[in-house]
Amino acid sequence: MTTPIVTRKRLSVVTSPYFSTSSITTKDAIASDLDSKNKESSSKKLKREQIKIEYEEEKEKEVKKLDGNNKKQKNKKEEKINYKEEVEETEHNNKIKTHINGVSLAKINWREVWDKIKIMRSENLAPVDTLGAESFNQSHIDPIEKRFHILVGCLLSSQTKDAITHAAVTRLKEYGLTVDSILKIDTNKLETLLYPVGFYKRKAIYLKKIAEILKTKYNGDIPPTFKEIEQLPGIGPKMTNLIVQIAWGRVEGIAVDVHMHRISNRLGWVKTKTPEETMRDLESWLPKENWGEVNHLLVGFGQTICTPVNPK
After folding, report:
1. Tens digit of pLDDT for each residue in 108-159?
2. Longest alpha-carbon distance in the chain
3. CB–CB of 131/163 below 8 Å?
4. CB count in 10 Å sphere of residue 183
5. What is the DSSP letter of 133?
6. CB-count exposure of residue 196 (10 Å: 0-12, 13-18, 19+)
7. Are 261 and 278 in contact (CB under 8 A)?
8. Minimal CA–CA distance to 228: which of 204, 209, 244, 249?
9. First to last CA, the chain
10. pTM above 0.90, yes or no
11. Ranges for the HhH-GPD domain (predicted)?
């Protein structure tokens, strides 16, 4: 009798990520996992809260900074307003101190200043004293020729130092300074004699034209009136006043050059922008008996004491 063979049915092993024979989840494992997740969640929550706190702190700093800037701007505006008020108050006080009934104290007290300038001028020899337009008024030569010398000297003096003007007139005299000699001289030669006078080329042309006008209209002499002299080429109001005063002995106005314009404003006698404005202003209040002296007085004062830079 044969023994029956018993075969056992082999169970297949099912593998699953959730069910594994190698790692069966226990209660302890589940509890550990939950605890780990809770810790992780708590850590993330703390981190988020920390970030929120830092953000709020940063935002608060920006707000404070903005408030600080606004306060600074406000303070600056207040400072500007206060400064403006102080300036206006100072200007008002200064105006009270320097004006009486709208008239400058400098004009009211001009005589006192005038006398002091005369004393200072007497102690300092200026170029205008020996080399100015008055130096061409030489009594020993023919009157017509003398008046022409004065006109030429005034024409050349514009924007030129007295020493340079005087040297140029001296060269012209050596050549022959008459209306006829100027008409005959070559323009290039005339320019050479005038150099380095300011704008010597232009002045050579003016001098030629003036000589022609004097020859044809005034018999070689200079015009006798202010209006006629002023109409000559290159002759302005300042030169005309000097020519009329020195050549004809009449004072019809105040000769104002850049020196007089600068000094008159510095003294407070006028408040003007151009020599022509200064001339009109001075003539409106300065006594006429002082008109003939004021140019020579202030020009020399400007050359020696009240210089443009670093006045003494």
Report:
1. 899 999 999 999 999 999 999 999 999 999 889 999 999 999 999 999 999 9
2. 186
3. yes
4. 13
5. G
6. exposed
7. yes
8. 244
9. 156
10. no
11. 156-304
